[in-house]
Amino acid sequence: MAPLADRLRPRRLDEFVGQRHLLGEGKILHRLLSQSLYQSLILWGPSGCGKTTLAHLIALHTEGHFMALSAVTAGTKEIRQAVEEARRVWASARKRSWLFMDEIHRLNKAQQDVLLPHVEKGALYLLGATTENPSFEIIRPLLSRCHVLILEPLSEDDLAQVIVRALSDSERGLGLLRPMLTEDALKLLVQAAGGDARVALNLLETVVLSTPPQADGVRRVEASAVLDVMERPAHYDKSGEEHYNLISAFHKSLRGGDPDAALYWMARMLQAGEDPLYIGRRLVVAASEDVGLADPFALVLAMNAVRAFELLGSPEGELHLAQAVVYVSLAPKSNSVYKALRSARECARKTPYDPVPFHLRNAPTALLKELGYGKGYRYPHDDPQGWVPEVYMPETVKGSVFFEPSVRGWEGKWKEALERRRALVKKQKS
User: Could you give the C-alpha distances from 93 to 64, 68, 262, 263, in angstroms and in order?
Assistant: First the structure.
């Protein structure tokens, strides 16, 4: 009686499809599981990419006690009950416990505060699943005690593999019905799923069950039958574009300064049933990644458009998104901050243990002062100009330049002053 998507849920790791960047040999999750290591994890990814399945498989593979809660319905009472259950299991069987918290971003701060000390002390290990950015939704102390794993939408090959398995599996799948999909029908199903295995299997089950068997008992599924049951309008993929192609066209139109094209792609996605807040999130990304400090107000407007949509909903809220689309499209563009962050991350990755210079260290005790902490530090506000030439980096990377402002918009106003400051620092310390 269970839906196909539930019946086909993988029972072993070797049945799991996708997420090779996590489960491939030598990758982070493969290393953890191969050694049966316990580590609290946050599984962050879109719907239908395997978060819940992967959580079950992690617990199964490590032979841990598995408990499941949903943040939609669970409160502090249920969390405390799970902690007590974990303690009983450990006392009686010396078995560690996993707590799977679905939609963990829905927990409020008080509920997360209740969970935190038990995760911190190892009373249980957390497996959180979320479609939302955990850095925005989960309190920092709890997030710092978890490893965040980013799951990706399933690729077309992955989805095709899931569908073919469902067609051939006679025990849990549709094999006994003798279905046969044409190549066009399979391609359409894959495109309609948009990286979501659950959508793919729900569509597949509906189209197979609604297709009558022929004289030979075979249920031949044509592309036209798939079109009849698709959850999204057929025109969403009529030119072969899938979800990620459309959002890519939208983002590139914003970056390219074409408000007409950006509005068109937004309208296409909205008409197809795309989540308007997803479009809003892409606007926020473009406002920083492509506009940046050339026009800082673009980020303000994009964020306010998202908040306005959350307040008003459709259709009124879509006007605010459109306003932000036009503004971000027309704003001067700069990706200098994007490149600066990427360069800084690469430098930090190569120098994770370089000591903080003594003059930058805080000296709250007499002993630290005697050791030279804070010695020689000059307080910029004491200078009439509010700035002093100083080195703020470790010796090994002194003089590194990450941020190179463009001449466009607001950045152009800062470019000359920043170059002059860097030259003074270089001259004084050379």
Answer: 11, 19, 59, 60
Q: Tokens 């200078």, residue?
A: 383
CB 282 within 8 A of CB 251: yes
Write out the residue range of the structural domain in which residue 114 sits: 19-150
Amino acid at residue number 242 = E
Give pLDDT, residue 231: 55
Which residues fall within 8 angstroms of residue 142, CB to CB, at 6 or more apart? 112, 115, 116, 119, 126
Q: What are phi and psi of 85, to 5 degrees?
A: -60, -40
pLDDT digits (tens, 9 = 90+) for 39-77: 899 999 888 888 999 999 888 888 889 999 998 888 889
Q: Which of 231, 262, 280 is the last residue of a domain?
A: 231
Q: Indicate which CATH number applies to the domain containing 266.
A: 1.20.272.10
What's the pTM?
0.54
Contact between residue 125 and residue 40 where contact means Cβ atoms under 8 Å apart = yes
Q: Determine the angle formed by the axes of helices 197-209 and 183-193, rounding to 10 degrees.
A: 140
Is residue 62 within 8 Å of 38, Cβ to Cβ? yes
